[in-house]
Amino acid sequence: xxxxxxxxxxxxxxxxxxxxxxxxxxxxxxxxxxxxxxxxxxxxxxxxxxxxxxxxxxxxxxxxxxxxxxxxxxxxxxxxxxxxxxxxxxxxxxxxxxxxxxxxxxxxxxxxxxxxxxxxxxxxxxxxxxxxxxxxxxxxxxxxxxxxxxxxxxxxxxxxxxxxxxxxxxxxxxxxxxxxxxxxxxxxxxxxxxxxxxxxxxxxxxxxxxxxxxxxxxxxxxxxxxxxxxxxxxxxxxxxxxxxxxxxxxxxxxxxxxxxxxxxxxxxxxxxxxxxxxxxxxxxxxx
Length: 287
Description:
This protein is 40% helix and 12% strand. It has 2 domains: 9-210, no CATH class; 223-286, no CATH class. The protein is α/β, with parallel strands linked by helices. A hairpin with a 4-residue loop joins strand 2 and strand 3 (74-80). It has helices at 9-16, 22-32, 87-100, 172-182, 196-204, 212-243, 250-263, 268-275, 279-286; strands at 44-46, 65-69, 74-80, 115-121, 134-138, 152-158. Strands 1-2-3-4-6-5 form a 6-stranded mixed sheet, with helices on both faces. The protein contains 9 helices and 6 strands, in the order ααβββαβββαααααα.
């Protein structure tokens, strides 16, 4: 038995964005967000439930997983493989944009539903100074710690900080993160993942259950993702060198990184995401 890597886009969407495996998504959300009792999600509806892509179209403005629950709360689940210095800001923008787009001229403010963003990173750390691999961020009154403004929640999971081995898996959260990080290295379903939603999740990633066309597309996406990660690592190294004073300045360093990325064939929008420069600045480098 061989498994697809759930961190690759097409497999991630198959795992958490499939109508056939809704209970997997529900179980994952309840675990990561620590919902219990009456707060638990019992039903979801996918808002962008597309067919598995048959090409390699860009998805800069397409959310990985976007769904609502029985109360109207909206959930975004994003997987990020390659290093991106503005990733946290992008997640804030996704949340704010999703919240604002609920409103139209005929809809009152009271009908705005909460937005919850879950962002997962593969190899890079969003918050290097934090020791934990998961952090949940809310709008809190800094004097009383009261959670009066409840409509935004951001949960960040940094898989690079998760190091538990199979024999150390105790909680459901342990099992979900272990599955995301390590299932691709197995030729069987690990014992802690054989039960309930975990077993179903593993089976959804079983390469033998996918069509030849889907297998081929997965391989193409894997190569594309690995190339993007390699380029991002180069950019991260250059950015680190810049921050340590090994380049002439912040703006100059970013421009140099942008030039190098453009020379590899990376598209302008992707370079803007990686470097934090504006699209106009990037385009000016190409002329």
